[in-house]
Amino acid sequence: MSRNDLTDDEGDSAGISRRDFVRGLGAASLLGATGLSFADDGMDGLEAVDDPIGSYPYRDWEDLYRDEWDWDSVARSTHSVNCTGSCSWNVYVKDGQVWREEQAGDYPTFDESLPDPNPRGCQKGACYTDYVNADQRVLHPLRRTGERGDGQWERISWDEALTEIADHVIDEVQAGRYDAISGFTPIPAMSPVSFASGSRLVNLLGGVSHSFYDWYSDLPPGQPITWGTQTDNAESADWHNADYIIAWGSNINVTRIPDAKYFLDAGYEGAKRVGIFTDYSQTAIHTDEWLSPHGGSDTALALGMAQTIVDEGLHDEAHLKEQTDMPLLVREDTGKFLRASEVGLAEDADDPEKVFVMVDADGTLRRAPGSLGERDGQKDYSASIELDFDPQLSVERSVDTDEGSVAVRSVWENLTDELSQYTPAVVHEETGVGENTYQRVAREFAEADAAKIIHGKGVNDWYHNDLGNRAIQLLVTLTGNLGDPGTGLDHYVGQEKIWSFHGWKVLSFPTGNVRGVPTTLWTYFHAGILDNTDPDTAEKIRESIDKGWMPVYPEERDDGSRPDPSTMFVWRGNYFNQAKGNVALEEQLWPKLDLVVDINFRMDSTAMYSDIVLPAASHYEKHDLSETDMHTYVHPFTPAVEPLGEAKTDWEIFRLLTEKIQERAQERGVEPVEDRKFDRTIDLTTIHDDYVRDWETGEEQGLVEDKAAAEFILEHSEETNPEGSDEQITFDDIDEQPQRFLTAGDHWSSDIKDGEAYVPWQDYVHDKNPWPTFTGRQQYYIDHDWYLELGEELPTHKEGPENTGGDYPLSYNTPHGRWSIHSTWRDDTKMLRLQRGEPVVYLNPEDAEERGIEDGDTVEVYNDLGSVEVQAKIYPSSEPGTVRHFFSWEKFQYPDRDNFNTLVPMYMKPTQLVQYPEDTGEHLHFFPNYWGPTGVNSDVRVDVRPSGGDTE
């Protein structure tokens, strides 16, 4: 009915059309009172207005959208998810609720010749707001009432939760089982205050701190083996300085989204970009050339390229002589380095057995400067590797020793013999890459002015990852591509290295004594896997433990017994979901644990299998720091809103727990306990006082709040408060704008320079300081007994273990995907909508057709360890004979709660269990996240069949 259909009376009494009435209701409800009245006065009762535009707050439809995009406040924060991006975001709040986030675009530019660093971010960070108010958000303390993993919980009070945990911890410490208490939390750099919160408690308890970089198979063992460092990379802006870039197993466009612009821009500037991937990946399509080696054959390809470089004389001889072990002499009878003490050259050395020998151009034996025997420990910059003579690379001769004449050869001679095996025909057979193709790429790489390799986790997941690392590193060493802009090998796999190291370390471990443990070995040992491994590996593992090369806790007691682990705190991580061999974890390790406590903002797989879950603040509800080696900026987390429900920050949770432990210890009258290993006393009656005390200044209540802890890190780190400088970075500074670090501490291998992107290795290449290795040089020859026994003293290609998972026809791996950072965002609705919404395996069309599988079918992937039910996706970009299952789907996202890791056995390589030198271990020694056995995610065999098909 139109207005014309109304009677005059009806029209007068209404005073407004239906369209105007509806419009008025919409305006009033969305924008608040307008001053208009739609009562019986009608239209005739409205007063005339001289300035309608200025008087009426609502005039047209656009204002609906303006109001929709209005906010009350903005806070700066980021995301603590072990993402290498470490991106700063603005978080918008309206009506007390986090409403949306937006990339911050205010990173200061330090080199105008490089692409603008702004903005940084990805689609995942752009929807973290979903988590703040999500259904899976943990809002209250919860206690398990059913079996672990059943999802049966009861809500309890904070006091009840803390009291139960405190009494259990007191019982364990009083019984001398403090080393049965474990704390697992990964990656300090992603939120060092939150990392330190629980680590500080575990340290004060005398408990065990777990490694993580090796556990995830992120640690590239070839770097500590060859370079004596954990990892050191150029920041991504330096990619733009390269003339030639090889992306080797690093799917930059998927896993390095904020930094992919540098890779692309380098191409626009004329750099050649080569991609080495087993599949035609999302990064391969943006390269100038794509090489596709068979899975696990990277070592053979790299050594074939090295052979080309050496055979054609394209190597940098001066670099090899000064910076590497290539001129050092090796005894042919034992395979050991010739020591200067054997030929009378080291009488004045501190340790003559650890000084090595070269031959100069005249044939005279000379001491190699910078050897460990001439240094005070692993890092001693008072020594030098600078040469005052010209050593020979190619040496094969006899020398007179105290034992008589001994045949020796230089490392270079041994290396060239090894490389001679990698003929074009052999390399093509092993890798499937064309002979002319890989040789041309090697030639171009060697001839480029500045060549760089971006090395990814794809190489690192294989059993022989150490050999793969060493072979690929050899390419930059042979060509002298180290220490200068646009050069190097950059290995990025999360926020693996923290800049503000000292401040974080003393905050996390105030006693200075740390029971660190390699998580791979700890899990392997306590999950019963050691009892079922092959005898040779089991023997090596036991020998490593018995010799003290690798620690396992709880320690063996005086009577020969060893308690089981009893307690596990997990925070900022998803240990149970990420565990290789997680069937063994559930069946063998988890029943040994009397108490598992998870501190979490969401209900993930580890939370589901815990006993008590404590609600943690989200990333938008706390103070903390964020750092990465992809760039040289530090920026903060700040609370945009108060924690939701009963959630608390990590720092407050662990502080309150120490308060409860102290309270209950005093009530129970417990006595201090002497630590069996360290010269210290564990006193639970003062543990809260110790927790909040600033151990550097002595201030008693200096660390009550998380912001104070963040300020502590900044104040006590060389990178943000350099000694002898007037410059200092404070928390308020980074809240205003991300700040570039002022310098680099001694755990980095170069300094930060104004106007330049950070590039590693300058301390050694330019300043001539000894590399932190046994020989003081880049060390490609390892004369440890185990390496010699296994034939791995030099990089060499080996096939992986046979039939891991069983004798099945398909190779299985679990790469990182585009729609999550580890398991975070795996359960986010927006990210699920961008894919198929459930776990998927990628199959080559030939493999799928052979098995009668079509795109979208539900299939079963299986091997001897178990099976998982997932959806099949046909993926023509993959190599036949392979199955890809992008990792970190939660266990509860599978029908039977068997996830991607159900099919992955846990096994370790003995060469990663050594100490070197064997007696003192300055070069290779266990240190959390520097050296320890890595997990293995590839080298797994499976098959696939339609779900419900024949199981025979």
From TrEMBL:
Its EC number is 1.7.5.1. It is a peripheral membrane protein. The keyword Cytoplasm does not apply. It is found in: Cell membrane. Its main location: membrane. It catalyses: nitrate + a quinol = a quinone + nitrite + H2O. Pfam families: Molybdopterin, Molydop_binding. The keyword Transferase does not apply. It is an enzyme of class 1 (oxidoreductase). This is nitrate reductase (quinone). It comes from Haloarcula marismortui ATCC 33800.
